């Protein structure tokens, strides 16, 4: 979302990971960015210019004197750029950039870029750990450029260690973070997500359809905006968000313990988890066997703690508390009742039971209600966008 309509320079240098830049370009284009690729001569030995030209729908810049329609095209590109990414960045290009050397299209253009720059080093482990390369990276970082650490693993040279270019989706995610205004800097954000699971016996349990997508989207959005995020998560099949402290729990009791343990230092608490209101009174330690002559089986249930209500009773006036309401009917009435009963500053109400909203879907339709009686409708959009709008409102209401 942050890269939509942005002018992005993608610098590609001569490393085996140059092929990953093709996928990164595809992700940037899909998100609506206008991308111009700048290649070094060595990069063209790994991937052809045509591939980048076709996918970017822009001429690739590789030669300052012969390739361009204008003799100052590199300056036009640098001036217009909202961000620049060098992926992969070789030791040679890193050294040139660190020392202001401008002897090819990429290094010359980068000297004129004033927008945020991200460098993604990728090379053999010994080269990466070489004191000169590290010194050059330090220079660039000190100058305010973003350095994305390489992954560790088996490299093309068969070495095992740090030096692998991170996956394109990860670089894309960090570019989005780089372009996001840091309006949650200094704020601690506590989020809960996913379902809770309550054992009936060692093989069966009571749970619900929460996938964690909505809560994780909120945790990711808050992290990108500079928040220090703790995510208390029920069992889900999602990757842990980058730079977020994730605490895994299963039951409502465990979620309550972790939420309350992290409550005091939190500035914003957003409770998205779908928590089991009741749990089996007497979970069995051995598997319940099928009885040949018993048709009906009842499981006695007992109430779980209402975590959100407890937080609402304990929160200070500086803390901002957001709850979610999952309703199948009477959305507004039920949401307002929950806001009142649980002492919330805001409640996000979503209708559940349809395939494109609520549980499991990638999209959600939410209505926000606030303590001052106002409300805001978020139409059916991706959960990532819902998350950002919700945080906009939290920040506005917190003043
Ligand atoms: O995870 P997804 O698949 O993306 O789905 C998202 C979602 C539908 C789960 C999410 O958008 C949502 O609506 N979450 C709240 C689900 C829920 O439990 O709603 P509720 O109306 O039953 O509870 C109201 C609030 O009280 C919630 O903030 C809930 O976390 C909290 N609660 C409820 C019971 C309990 N024992 N303790 C609680 O803290």
Could you please describe the fold and organization of this structure?
With 399 residues, the chain is an alpha/beta fold. It folds into 2 domains: 7-178, Rossmann fold (3-Layer(aba) Sandwich), CATH 3.40.50.1950; 188-277 and 302-398, CoaB-like (Rossmann fold), CATH 3.40.50.10300. It has 13 helices and 19 strands. The protein has helices spanning 18-30, 49-56, 73-80, 91-98, 105-111, 125-129, 131-142, 168-179, 213-224, 252-261, 307-314, 331-341, 383-398; strands at residues 7-12, 34-39, 83-89, 117-121, 146-147, 151-154, 160-164, 188-193, 198-201, 204-206, 228-233, 245-248, 268-271, 278-280, 301-303, 320-327, 346-351, 363-370, 375-382. Strands 12-11-8-13-16-17-18-19 form an 8-stranded mixed β-sheet, with helices on both faces. Strands 2-1-3-4-5 form a 5-stranded parallel β-sheet, sandwiched between helices. Strand 9 and strand 10 form a beta hairpin. The mean pLDDT is 95. Ligand PMT binds next to helix 9, helix 11 and strand 16.
First-to-last CA distance: 24 Å
* CATH architectural designation of the largest domain: 3-Layer(aba) Sandwich
CATH classification, class level of the largest domain:
Alpha Beta
Category by helix and strand content: alpha/beta
Descriptive keywords:
eight-stranded mixed beta sheet; five-stranded parallel beta sheet; single chain; 19 strands; alpha/beta; Rossmann fold; 399 residues; elongated; 13 helices
Topology:
Blueprint: E1 7-12, H1 18-30, E2 34-39, H2 49-56, H3 73-80, E3 83-89, H4 91-98, H5 105-111, E4 117-121, H6 125-129, H7 131-142, E5 146-147, E6 151-154, E7 160-164, H8 168-179, E8 188-193, E9 198-201, E10 204-206, H9 213-224, E11 228-233, E12 245-248, H10 252-261, E13 268-271, E14 278-280, E15 301-303, H11 307-314, E16 320-327, H12 331-341, E17 346-351, E18 363-370, E19 375-382, H13 383-398
Helix pairs in contact: 1-2, 1-8, 3-5, 4-7, 9-13
């Amino acid at each position: 979302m942050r890269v939509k309509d942005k002018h992005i320079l993608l610098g590609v240098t001569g490393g085996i990971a140059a092929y990953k830049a093709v996928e990164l370009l595809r992700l940037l284009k899909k998100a609506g960015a206008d991308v111009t690729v700048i290649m070094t001569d060595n990069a063209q030995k790994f991937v052809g210019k045509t591939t980048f030209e076709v996918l970017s729908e822009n001429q690739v810049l590789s030669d300052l004197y012969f390739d361009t329609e204008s003799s100052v095209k590199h300056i036009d590109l640098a001036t217009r750029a909202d961000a620049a990414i060098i992926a992969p960045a070789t030791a040679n290009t890193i050294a040139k950039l660190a020392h202001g050397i401008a002897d090819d299209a990429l290094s010359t253009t980068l000297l004129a870029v004033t927008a945020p720059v991200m460098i993604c080093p990728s090379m053999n482990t010994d080269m990466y750990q070489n004191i000169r390369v590290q010194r050059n990276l330090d220079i660039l970082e000190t100058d305010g450029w973003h350095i994305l650490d390489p992954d560790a693993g088996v490299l093309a040279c068969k070495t095992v260690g740090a030096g692998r270019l991170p996956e394109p989706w990860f670089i894309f995610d960090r570019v989005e973070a780089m372009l996001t205004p840091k309006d949650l800097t200094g704020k601690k954000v506590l989020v809960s997500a996913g379902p809770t699971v309550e054992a009936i016996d060692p093989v069966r349990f009571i749970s619900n359809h929460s996938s964690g997508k909505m809560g994780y989207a909120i945790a990711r959005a808050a992290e990108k905006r500079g928040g220090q995020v703790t995510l208390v998560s029920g069992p889900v099949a999602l990757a842990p968000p980058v730079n977020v402290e994730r605490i895994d729990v299963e039951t409502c009791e465990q979620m309550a313990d972790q939420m309350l343990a992290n409550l005091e230092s939190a500035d914003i608490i957003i409770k998205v988890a779908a928590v089991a209101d009741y749990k089996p009174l007497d979970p069995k330690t051995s598997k319940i066997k099928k009885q040949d002559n018993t048709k009906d089986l009842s499981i006695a249930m007992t109430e779980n703690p209402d975590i959100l209500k407890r937080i609402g009773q304990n929160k200070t006036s500086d803390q901002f508390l957001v709850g979610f309401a999952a309703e199948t009917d009477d959305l507004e009435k039920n949401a307002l009742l929950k806001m009142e009963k649980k002492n919330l500053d805001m409640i996000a109400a979503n209708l559940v039971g349809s395939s494109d909203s609520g549980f499991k879907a990638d999209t959600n339709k939410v209505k926000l209600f606030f303590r001052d009686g106002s409300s805001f409708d978020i139409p059916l959009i991706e959960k990532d966008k819902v998350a950002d709008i919700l945080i906009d409102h939290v920040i506005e209401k917190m003043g």
